[in-house]
Write a structure and sequence with these properties.
mainly alpha, 66% helix
Length: 77
């Protein structure tokens, strides 16, 4: 399903965007969609990755470290 939106853009920006779209051989709408879609996907992927990373931090990491019995054991080579 497609939805129409209304944007208010400066005339200079629209002129530049139309020029870029013309170089690509597309209409302005298709040019903007092709540019915006990856941006939205990247941000969604970032949010998912951030959420997973924060969940891992919340759980913590088992580094299997145990406190040495003595100072001498700590410095033993």
């Amino acid at each position: 399903m497609k939805t129409n939106i209304v944007l208010e853009l400066d005339a200079d920006l629209v002129r530049e965007l139309r020029a870029h779209a013309a170089k690509d051989g597309t209409l302005l709408n298709a040019f903007l969609v092709r540019w915006l879609r990856p941006l939205v996907r990247e941000r969604a992927a970032y949010r998912r990755a951030r959420s997973r990373a924060l969940a891992r931090l919340e759980r913590g990491f088992d580094l299997q470290w145990k406190r040495p019995d003595s100072r001498a054991e700590l410095h033993r080579r």
